[in-house]
Amino acid sequence: MLSRRGLVLSSAAIAAASATPAAASTKELRFRLVEDPEMLWSGQSVSLTVNTVVGTYLVERLVYQGTDGKPQPWLAESWTFSDDAKQITFRLRGGIKFHDGTDCDAAAVKFHFDSILDPARASPVRPIIAALESVDALDPLTVRFNFSRPFAPFMTIVAGGAYGINSPAALQRLGRQYGRRPVGTGPYRFVSWAPGSEIVLERNPTFRQLRADAVNKGAPYADRITLSVIPEEGVAFSALQTRELSAAELQTDTVERLARDRNFRVVVDENAKNLSFLEFAFRPPFDDPRMREAVSLALDRASIVRAAYAGYAVAVRGPMSPGIPGYDEAVAQQFGTGHDPARARAILAELGWTGTGRGPVSKDGREARFALRSYANPVADRALAVIQRNLADIGIQVAITTSDWGSFYPSLLRDGWDMNFMRWTSFDPFVLVQLFRHPGHRRALPRFDGLDEALAGIETTLDPDRRQVFVSEAQKLLLQNRAIVPLMTNHNVTVVQAGLQNYVPDAFNLVKPGDLRMANWA
Amino acid sequence: MGGYIARRILLVIPVVIGILLLTFMVRAVIPTDAVTAMYEGQITDQEAEATTALIRAKFHLDRPWYIQFGYYVRDVARGDLGESVRLRRPVSEEIGYRYLNTLWLTLSALAIGIGIGVPAGIIAAARKDTWMDVTAMTVGLLGISMPAFFFGLLLILVFAVWLQIVPVVPRGGAALLLPALTLGLIEAAPISRLARSGMIEMLRRDHIRAARARGMSEAAVIMRHALPGTLLGILTVVGLQFGQLLGGAFIIEVIFGWRGIGELAVKAIQWRDFALTQAIILVSAGSYVAINLAIDILYVWIDPRVDYTRA
Amino acid sequence: MSAAASLPTSRLAWVLDRLWHNRSARIGGGIIAIILLCAAFAPWIAPHDPMAIDTLRRLEPPSAEHWLGTDEVGRDLASRLIHGTRYFVLICLITTVIAGVIGTVLGLISGAGPLIADAVIMRFVDVLLAFPTILLVLAVIAILGPSLTTAMVAVGIGNIPGYARLVRSAALTIRREEYVEAARALGASELGIIFGTVLPNIVSPLVVYTSYAMPLAALAAAALSFLGLGAQPPAPEWGAMLVNARSFLFTAWWAVAAPGLAIFAAILGLNLLGNALRDVLDPRDA
Fold first, then answer.
1. Interchain proximity A234–C250, CB inside 8 Å
2. CATH number of the domain at C17-47+85-285, please?
3. Strand locations in C158-231 (E)
């Protein structure tokens, strides 16, 4: 295979080539896209790729989320809640212009949210903010959001890329073509898009950085940013080595080798907000919480983390990702379980399951053989291999079936499975409501005393301190009832050229491209 | 002959109806729809049912499948392929450039396949049972003996990383190079095999023997007398391959990020985006039927001796 | 090739003799023989449990303990390859049997049966051919749910048209032969003629065609693993192993090379054997 010396030589040759005067005159950065976005239209897609690209470079939001989980001023300089918590009023900053020169004012904000609310457009984003009824522009810099019920997660949701403000003028002019030629207020503006190949962006010369957490308050450093579509992991790896990429998000396995190379730096997003976990259909024998506890005790989370993410993940005991503000570590330690196969076997024995030490245990003539379903993904496969082995060690045999999300997720509404392997990403504790409000997102969850009340509190309590009581209570109840088996939260990993400065992901794992520069730029 | 051609064209009609029926069935029996498939790990499909219902209503996903199919047939008759739930754009826009991409990839790959396969086959035939024959035929097997994605990755490794002939992240026309080469080398194997056997058969024929007896050089015999007949057979097979490949070589398109019909087909099914799926079936099946028809007619025109009663 | 058993004994002996003296048949046959042996005796040959994970020893290079190294969760690659032969053999057989049996029956009815059946079947085959294969396969999987069985069924269905066309044209030629006319004159039923007289005489082209189709079917099944729609984890199926390991091409090449070369060798073996069979059985393709 590839010799190290060959690599160093080749990257040196390319570095020399790009150091020619012509190349040095344009300050360019090149990043990887794992897939081509379906469109570049905030508010009309729920795709992570779409919202990452538009949200990072092209459009700005009313607020962003600080690493403490609190909303921070961005296009809005302040906001107030009405007494009944059904209205939020934002005060915008003046003088912000879209890339096409038009004003980003209250009318533009209203226009954007109206386009999400418009039934004729049927935006896929609409269900996520179902409680939002209407938006009023009270004056050029004041905009009011009206809700049908108090909706606490809104301040987190609205910081996401899908809620970045598009230019109403451009949208009206371009119609359905807007998704191919977006116009926002962000640090970079759209130049061209070769489908499947690359998206070229150029510096927004009039850009003013409004975020307090940014280093560079003025126009961006780099003249041009090119986003290259590189689906294959190995290709992205090589492109970093040949310096065809300034940075690339990589799967954790490939990272290990670059982590040892001083030409690169590894940026780990420790705010990651995903959780992998096991769920139950609550069919016998898993209608018994002790049975579910045995499963939880059997699993060696440290081993799962190593196998699935080469260590770029944390084992989690609580029912929510530690990256989501509101995660309660004290509750997780007190009510969660660790790895204790001996106790798991003891519980099975207490419940009447007996075995010979080889093969599955059995009870009343029924062998402990169960069906485990998962979405198909190489990383999930590896986690499942460990899970299957861990469970076999306590005498529980699981047969694994994996399929794409469109088959897997709906199949859970039908019978025929006992456990499933899920991975869910959310920025707000509201995810607990989405998943675990009776009867649960797959309609299999029994009613647990007090849980729905706690979840209602998470949904409707705007005050952060009062809300936290409900968030902690819900985590506790989920763990006490062994409703799910939490496994891990994985960290997104980006490998950057050592000379790339200020590559710091925010709470939503987005960088501020205006801050990015190479160390050797004048 | 004219009667045969007319009948051959008429036979297209049941095939087109059959394809429509099959499309019909696929849509009716595949569980779940585009809306559920879209909210992967982000939103549960039971919360906010009223608003997901809006999306379903907009794209008629709330109607029974035969009504949806009715809409589809009506729209196609009007020249409208519908709008994609996921892409929020007219399907025809997406299909249009993707079809061209697949066309380019297919043509380049077949050109490479013919360029390598035909000379290899001729040399193997002319030097039958020598080391050249064995080598040509064995090398030909390499391309078709590897999974396409493994072969594609190896080519990236060799050409982009080791030899650095092409950039790892190709731009513009250069992006066609490696996928076309991968597919071309895969196609070269059957073409070389065909060229070899066709040529061997030709070289046995009387008029070739006569030419040799007249003292014509071996090269001239092959080029002037044996090759034209062999090429006709190859063209038939290549034509059929052409028709099939217009359905997209999905693995190669996925590996190299080549935005063709095959890559879209995989996504369309995973997205449960039936407007896209139906359009893909329409254009690829349409191309296949048209090319097949053209080949058949061409064949009669070139070689009217064939018996067409039941063949 | 079980079909060869129905050949007259003397012809079978002649074919085997020719194959024995054919270099590519010996190489290809050797590879296939090794695979069959591994498949039959996998638990006794494999040095380790192919499912035994050890996440502390993932992606270890080849060593005395692990001849081919370990995979991404620390399983012994050599043992997984050896057990994987069973999946390979299974995939080859099932896809071929599905396509071969259905395709042959359709082809026989079409070629030797009533004209109306011919018209209906051939239009059906035309539709299957025109329908983009990948969509056909993905649709079958979306309907039946992904599993190795579904993948094999889907690939098998995709290969029906080839067999049907081949058998039909062979049957059309044979039914005009004198011995078929003779059988008919002696009062044999149409069904009897189709299966008793025509079928045994198309075994040669069937075997030749299978030698083309089988390696392609095995590759198609591997391609489905690429989409996560083939064998289910943690089955040591080569295609799935290759797909799951491919991101390690630059960091742990052995994890990619082992299944990649295994598939390559197996398919090459089938192709070499196929070439030889064609040389022996099909005089036009000498």
1. yes
2. 1.10.3720.10
3. none
